């Protein structure tokens, strides 16, 4: 879980597309993310504007982490090798049970 | 009668200088003129248009407005050009213009009246028109001789004897008209007025003399005067520098300001409302809340819990620094704290709290669920860091051993299975140790400072020990030392057959001792044939080619670095092993195999010529080498041309030329002859291809360069090659 938080922190300032569970897809610059993976976006643009004209006037938004289905990432900002290592490290840590 | 209106004498030349007739005087004058108009029955409304341009909203529709039309014919015309042209005509058709726009005028008038309800001033539609396109109107009016003419007739009837003077006066009166004033009224007041008090009185006297005997007009007069006064007020307003036509804007601004004011008041009220809760929480309460929030985010070991972010930031910063840009990506922690804490004090408190949280967490390990006595169920204490576990995967001993806790089992020396999941397990274990080693590297104790050598020395010694242990475990996990021949392929080769395994090798090599690297290289060379990348690109599919590419990019470079520093003896040994244990024809047709052969050959040649810091090898070693070389040459003889890719593939063949060059350098004259004969066709092909225009200049140059790699080694050049006539 922490891996995702750690990962998204590095994407702050990058353009991402957040697909929500209600099929809305919003493109915007990631402003911040928290441990619940709530997301703040700026300069947003809804992908299918014709379907959601009411979103035209919205310039920034806060997305509750639990309503996110996918996040499309900018490929150059993702270090996949490092991500693998991070996943390995997380696995090595004593699992979710008694930790720390 | 030049002094009848006072301004007569001055006006024609000094229109621009008219200023500051004070309010009372002006009103008085207006009143008198009005009176006279009523008395004489003349249509003074016309004049009023000029004098009090803005209270005649409905005068347009009154009777006898024919003169209006004549006078202000241009008013309705938005068509400026036409009006201007009219000024040169004798035939004025102003009425038509007015008539055309009459409905619009009326509408506008109504609108305007509505807008300015509160001022109570009715304005003529001309005024509103003037507001809209003042300059146009002005121009058109100015050009007209008619106004003065009309005025002259008015004045004429009012006093025949002064017809000429009145004409001028009328002119002046129109100049007084805001319609004529060039933007500001300050300019359109006769300056002569100010200094001509007596003449004003004279006017009064004159007017009262003619108009005084009309008492029945009193009421109406009063009403008119009221409105006139207001108009004057408006005029004064203009004199104050505020153009009257911006009143709508002013009103709008005022409304806006009022709204803002209201909003501010609301906000203040709200703040006041909240203020009663001030001081409800003590500082410790706030700290407690803060702690709960922060405890979700902080960690005692950022590299453990925030690995990706930490390393990514470090890598990015290093990359940026390499490119000459100072690392502007801040440390995520400092960024966080900067965002959180306003001033230094807050930040400090935060840090203290973080420390406390961390130590608290260490002391009382979190429990995932709480059983309350007497309760039937358990209360789950889940958090973001401790999500409810949905999958229960049973752990089997050997695979999930945590690296630090107990020593992993030594690599099984006996029968080793090479099933894919086993190999993948090994690779993962290698990764685990590599990560641990890299972590150790980051935690390397700093070099000892003065006076602390002993303590620091102790730390360094301990660190070295731990590092060594980890490195050894990693070495074991690579299974390089498993004897050859027990299983096929060799476990280490099995590891290398996975792209994951290939990728880890450069990172492994960083932690190996030179002897271990040599062992690794030896093992690799000895089992080269069984590598999955040891096959010609022609026979490899897309994935196979990717694997070859990966091998060339990950494993060859570090080993090339190692070999290029190896002494002659080792190079000879490695080549001997290579030739002995592998089918050279097969190996040489693979890109990686050819790369290794080229590597050994060129390194040996360099050492033979005594370059670098190494001593020139003695005769025995050179003889050994020559023998090896002959063996290699004999094996490859008649296969040299087969090293090239089939022409159809158009694949890069620079590595082949490089290999041929390395061969040619060490070859005897006979061998050189054999070489040239075998690859003659390829040489010619390339030279011909470069000479034809089919290829782009760069490509042609590249081809010639490739050929020259080989030819230069023989002491030849591509330019010497004579192309046989086709």
UniProtKB/TrEMBL annotation, chain A:
Biological process according to GO: mRNA splicing, via spliceosome
Ranges annotated as spanning the membrane: none
Gene Ontology cellular component list: catalytic step 2 spliceosome; Lsm1-7-Pat1 complex; P-body; precatalytic spliceosome; U4/U6 x U5 tri-snRNP complex; U6 snRNP
Subcellular location: Nucleus
Domain Sm as annotated: residue spans: 3-77
Keyword vocabulary terms for this entry: mRNA processing, mRNA splicing, Nucleus, Ribonucleoprotein, RNA-binding, Spliceosome
One Gene Ontology molecular-function label: RNA binding
Gene3D superfamilies documented for this protein: 2.30.30.100
Family: Belongs to the snRNP Sm proteins family.
Function according to Swiss-Prot or TrEMBL: Component of LSm protein complexes, which are involved in RNA processing and may function in a chaperone-like manner.
Protein name: LSM complex subunit LSm2
Species the sequence originates in: Linnemannia exigua
Taxonomic lineage from the root: Eukaryota, Fungi, Fungi incertae sedis, Mucoromycota, Mortierellomycotina
Gene responsible for this protein: LSM2
From TrEMBL, chain B:
Main location: cytoplasm
Compartment annotation: Cytoplasm, P-body; Nucleus
GO cellular component, one term: P-body
Family according to the record: Belongs to the PAT1 family.
Biological processes annotated in GO: deadenylation-dependent decapping of nuclear-transcribed mRNA; P-body assembly
Entry's Gene Ontology molecular function annotations: RNA binding
Region Disordered: start-end pairs: 324-370, 393-420
Residues in the signal sequence: none
One protein family per Pfam: PAT1
Protein's name in the database: mRNA decay factor PAT1 domain-containing protein
């Amino acid at each position: 879980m922490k891996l995702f938080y750690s990962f998204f922190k590095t994407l702050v300032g990058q353009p991402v597309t957040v697909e929500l569970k209600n099929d809305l897809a919003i493109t915007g610059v990631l402003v911040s993310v928290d441990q619940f993976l709530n997301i703040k976006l700026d300069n947003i643009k809804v992908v299918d504007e014709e379907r959601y004209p009411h979103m035209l006037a919205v310039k920034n938004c806060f997305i509750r982490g639990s309503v996110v289905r996918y996040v499309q990432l900018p490929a150059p900002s993702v270090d996949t090798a490092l991500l693998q290592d991070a996943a390995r490290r997380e696995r090595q840590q004593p699992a979710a049970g008694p930790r720390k | 009668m030049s002094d009848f209106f006072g301004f007569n004498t001055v006006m024609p030349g000094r229109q621009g200088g008219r200023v500051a007739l004070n309010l009372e005087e002006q009103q008085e004058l207006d009143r008198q003129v009005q009176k006279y108009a009523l008395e004489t029955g003349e249509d003074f409304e016309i004049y009023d248009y000029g004098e009090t341009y803005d209270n005649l909203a409905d005068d347009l529709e009154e009777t006898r407005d024919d003169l209006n039309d004549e006078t202000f014919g241009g008013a309705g015309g938005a068509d400026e050009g036409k009006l201007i042209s009219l000024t040169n005509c004798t035939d004025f058709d102003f009425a038509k213009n007015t008539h055309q726009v009459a409905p619009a005028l009326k509408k506008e008038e109504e609108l305007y009246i509505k807008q300015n309800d509160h001022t109570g001033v009715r304005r003529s539609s001309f005024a509103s028109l003037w507001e809209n396109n003042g300059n146009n109107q002005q121009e058109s009016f100015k050009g007209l001789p008619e106004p003065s003419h009309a005025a002259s007739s008015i004045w004429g009837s009012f006093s025949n004897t002064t017809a000429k003077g009145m004409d001028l006066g009328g002119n002046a009166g129109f100049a007084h008209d805001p319609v004529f004033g060039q933007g500001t009224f300050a300019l359109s007041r006769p300056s002569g007025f100010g200094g001509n008090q007596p003449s004003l009185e004279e006017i009064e006297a004159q007017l009262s003399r003619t108009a005084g005997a009309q008492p029945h007009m009193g009421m109406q007069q009063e009403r008119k005067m009221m409105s006139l006064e207001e108009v004057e007020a408006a005029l004064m307003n203009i004199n104050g520098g505020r153009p009257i036509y911006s009143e709508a804007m002013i009103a709008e601004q005022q409304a806006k300001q009022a709204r803002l004011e209201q909003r501010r008041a609301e906000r203040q009220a709200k703040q006041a409302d909240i203020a009663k809760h001030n001081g409800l929480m003590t500082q410790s309460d706030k700290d407690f809340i803060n702690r709960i929030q922060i405890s979700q985010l902080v960690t005692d070991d950022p590299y453990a819990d925030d690995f990706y972010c930490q390393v990514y930031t470090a890598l990015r910063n290093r990359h940026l620094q390499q490119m000459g840009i100072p690392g502007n990506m801040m440390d995520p922690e400092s960024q966080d704290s900067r965002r959180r804490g306003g001033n230094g004090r807050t930040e400090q408190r935060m840090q203290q709290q973080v420390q406390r949280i961390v130590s608290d967490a260490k002391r009382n390990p979190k429990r995932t669920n709480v059983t309350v006595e007497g309760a039937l169920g358990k209360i789950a204490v889940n958090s973001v860091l401790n999500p409810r576990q949905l999958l229960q995967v049973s752990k089997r001993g050997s695979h999930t051993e945590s690296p630090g806790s107990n020593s992993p089992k030594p690599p099984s020396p006996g029968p080793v299975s090479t099933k894919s999941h086993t190999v993948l397990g090994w690779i993962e274990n290698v990764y685990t140790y590599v990560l641990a080693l890299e972590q150790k590297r980051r935690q390397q104790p700093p070099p000892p400072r003065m006076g602390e050598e002993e303590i620091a020395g102790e730390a360094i010694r301990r660190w070295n020990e731990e590092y060594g242990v980890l490195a050894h475990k990693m070495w074991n996990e690579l299974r390089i030392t498993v004897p050859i021949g027990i299983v096929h392929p060799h476990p280490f080769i099995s590891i290398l057959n996975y792209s994951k395994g290939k990728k880890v090798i450069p990172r492994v090599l960083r932690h190996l001792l030179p002897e271990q690297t040599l062992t690794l290289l030896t093992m690799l060379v000895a089992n080269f044939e069984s590598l999955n990348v040891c096959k010609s690109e022609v026979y490899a599919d897309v994935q196979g080619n990717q694997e070859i590419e990966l091998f060339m990019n990950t494993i060859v470079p570090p080993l090339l670095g190692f070999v290029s520093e190896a002494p002659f003896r080792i190079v000879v040994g490695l080549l001997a092993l290579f030739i002995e244990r592998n089918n050279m024809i097969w190996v040489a047709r693979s890109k990686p195999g050819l790369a290794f052969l080229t590597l050994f050959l060129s390194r040996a040649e360099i050492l033979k010529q005594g370059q670098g810091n190494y001593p020139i090898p003695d005769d025995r070693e050179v003889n050994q080498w020559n023998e090896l070389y002959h063996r290699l040459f004999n094996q490859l003889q008649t296969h040299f041309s087969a090293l090239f890719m089939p022409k159809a593939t158009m694949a890069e063949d620079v590595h082949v030329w490089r290999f041929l060059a390395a061969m040619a350098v060490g070859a005897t004259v006979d061998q050189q002859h054999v070489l040239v004969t075998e690859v003659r066709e390829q040489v010619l092909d390339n030279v011909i291809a470069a000479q034809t225009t089919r290829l782009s200049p760069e490509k042609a140059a590249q081809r010639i360069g490739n050929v020259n790699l080989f030819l230069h080694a023989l002491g030849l050049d591509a330019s010497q090659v004579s192309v046989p006539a086709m």
